[in-house]
Amino acid sequence: MPDHAAFERLVMVHLDAGHNLARWLTRDASDAEDVVQDACLRAMKYMGTLHAQDGRAWFLTIVRRAFYDWLARNRPALLARDDESAFESLADEADNPEQALMHKTERLALAEAVAALPLPFREVIVLRELEDLSYKEIARIADIPVGTVMSRLSRARRLLQGAAALRGFDSTGAGGDA
Predict the structure, then answer these.
(1) CB–CB of 166/160 below 8 Å?
(2) Handedness of CA 113, 12, 36, 128 (dihedral sign)
(3) Where are the domains of the chain?
(4) Topology adopted by domain 97-166
């Protein structure tokens, strides 16, 4: 029988991170909910395989695998190609209206550029820059060598710097050295 208290303590606290990853990967909030629901069911079923106390990386691995299973079932053509996406963003209330509009425009341009990245690059940039995971954690989640994580991050950052959506802005906002 699953240990519901352990599930709450080690997995459910990372539900927002799982939904964030799923939303970036699926590019649709409703589809992301389906992926996360499937991931939660899997996590509950396999709770006994969580040996370390780091439920975050373990759960994000499950979310990622649930996404790829969902993608193969629902959008097999997207395994080879990506489409556009929207990202919700809020303006900083402390800014004046002109600055708020500029920041919102920059964030939307960045979100558009990230969404346009090929899936392997989008995946690592989201895990590193939005979820603040280490290279080692990303390698474990994506089941790739750390060197591949580093090269994909480097390439993703170069692609973001060259993105048409970001031309005219001073920085990509994708973060600096890791």
Answers:
(1) yes
(2) positive
(3) 4-78, 97-166
(4) Arc Repressor Mutant, subunit A (1.10.10)
Report how far residue 9's alpha carbon sits from residue 96's, in angstroms, rounded to the nearest whole number.
41
> Under CATH, which architecture does the 4-78 domain have?
Orthogonal Bundle (1.10)
Q: What pTM, to 2 d.p., does this model score?
A: 0.62
| Same topology between domain 4-78 and domain 97-166 | no
Q: How far from 40 is each of 7, 60, 104, 174, CA to CA, in Å?
A: 9, 10, 33, 29
Task: Give the model confidence (pLDDT) of 68-96 as tens digits.
Answer: 999 888 876 655 444 333 233 333 334 46
C-alpha–C-alpha distance, residues 140 and 136, integer Å: 6
Q: Contact, 132 vs 95, CB < 8 A?
A: no
